[in-house]
Amino acid sequence: MTTLASIANARLPRWLLGDAWPVVAGQPALAAITLAHGNVQAVMPMAGAPVPDAWDVQGAPVLPGFVDAHTHLDKTFTLPRMRHVQPGLLGAIDAMMTDRLGWTAADVHQRASRALRWAHEAGAVHVRSHVDWWEPDSTPVAWDVLAALAEQWKGRIRLEQVSLVKLTLFQELAQARKFARLVAATGPHALLGAFVHSVNWDENALRNVFIAAGEAGLDVDLHVDEELNPGAQGLAATARILRETGFTGRVVCGHTCSLAAQPEKLALETLDAAAQAPITLVSLPITNLLLQDAVTGRTPRLRGLTLLKEARARGIPLLIATDNVQDPFCRVGSYDPLEAFSAGVLAAQLDQPFDTWSDALCRADWLQRTPAPAPSLIGAAADLVIFHDADAWGWPSRSARRTVLRRGVPLTPSHERPIP
After folding, report:
1. Rg of the chain over CA atoms, in angstroms?
2. Contact by Cβ (8 Å): 382, 407
3. Average pLDDT, whole number, for the chain?
4. Residue 420 located in a structural domain
5. Containing structural domain, residue 179
6. Which residues form the catalytic set?
7. pLDDT tens digits, 357-381
8. Is the pLDDT of residue 419 over 90?
9. Pair 40, 153 in one domain
10. Which pLDDT does position 198 carry in this prediction?
């Protein structure tokens, strides 16, 4: 398939168009997208726009390629070989600790490669994976495997990897610095990370994470407060430590479920503090809806969702991501970020998901130290996802059939609609 020259009648989301874009019958005017050399050259309203050799998508919703900001490629697809998993987060950890004893480089490579193929077909261009790192003096087998996969997938998916280390292993600053040096030596796609939970809470250890990361020039990605304990304080402490230390990197905080269980005043004060820090939040609706308030034989009363609307109202960058797929933490999943997004739309009652919230699938710059002042397709790679059977009102419903463009060239998995 040759590279497309242009796309006509594309329905782009409001967040990608700017205030000056014309509105027709209360909706953004359809767009003409001109491509050149694999990049987006221009985006113009259809009215009066010359669109030679255009593929007319007839008003189909179109988005930039997806960013899946929080996955676990080391754990993925392990569920079929596990006999029984106790409900809840800690039960899943116990099951995973047993299974990982048998991991080999070939095993991890096979499972993670399958995940990346699925993500690629779904439209993901950027995937970040956490890697369990339990031993202070040895590198996990999965760490080197993912570093190799990052190189193999270069040009198709940007694969980043995060060291998922339990917080107590950062109690000594010397050990924290050792972790940071090992991560930094992996390359610019690697980040320092930690598991921050009330069962291992240690504020000094958390401070050491940022000291060591700052010295090594690393960004940080944390599992934070993945629980419904109103006393969890990881996010609040992170915002305070960032202010006190002057850490200049980007900090991504995944989960933050405890905000939903805290008194309203306390939760909002924590978000106010996070809004003043270089923090991006990542919500993981599918896994947290399955794990939180999980008891055998009992319907959950509480839901494991962070405060998406309140975070957005404060200007905090917010992404929605896949998390675990077919492992003891989450028995379902497909590495289609839109599946997690759809769960979030329902669980959080998100209005206008296409026009207002779909940026939570696409803003890879929200993982960078300095996010872009305004998103734009112009000049970016022509990595686009076109939803032929959907419309902007009902999206993400009817989004299964789609065309994925990579640098203007369509992928053609069997489920996609052929291009005329």
Report:
1. 21
2. yes
3. 93
4. no
5. 66-361
6. 226
7. 999 999 999 999 999 999 999 999 9
8. no
9. no
10. 95
